[in-house]
Amino acid sequence: MVKDSETDKDKVLGLLRICHDSLHSYGKTPEQLTNATFAFLMVLGEYEYKEVERAFTKYLSKESTVPTPADIVNIIEPKPEWCSLTVKIIREKMSEGSTYVTNQERRYVEEYLKFKINSYK
Q: What's the average pLDDT block by block, 10 residues per block, for the chain (121 residues)?
């Protein structure tokens, strides 16, 4: 994990410097990079360096502004893509009672509902 390796921490800081030097930062000063590094290390410290590096590479290939820690995390751990039609079909099966619903289907519906509820908070 990045947090356990000084070398990996330095590599993440190098990635941030690359972003700051090559992407639009819209008025942010180099001094602000110091504060941002703490946030990046705090959030990205839980991941392996290779995951972080791949996410930065993907971000750099598609974006033109400096990323936030959340931007990188969303690449490492993409939010699930929900299919509301699938949820509807499973819920109909659940309401019928005579059709078998797998545990995986039940979890899918539960996670979908949690996601929807949290998106309104």
A: 87 86 75 81 92 93 90 88 84 83 88 81 61
pTM for this predicted structure: 0.64
Measured over the CA atoms of residue 51, residue 56, residue 57 and residue 62, the dihedral's sign is: positive
Describe the crossing of helices 6-22 and 49-62 by its angle, rounded to 10 degrees.
Answer: 10
Instruction: Please identify which residue in the block is written with the tokens 């990046």.
Output: 40
The full set of domain ranges for the chain reads 2-76, 84-119
Per-residue model confidence (pLDDT) at position 45: 92
CA distances, 54 to each of 40, 49, 50, 57, 59 (Å):
15, 9, 6, 5, 9
Fold observed for domain 2-76: Helicase, Ruva Protein; domain 3 (1.10.8)
Phi-psi region of 97 (alpha: psi -120 to 50; beta: other; left: phi over 0): left
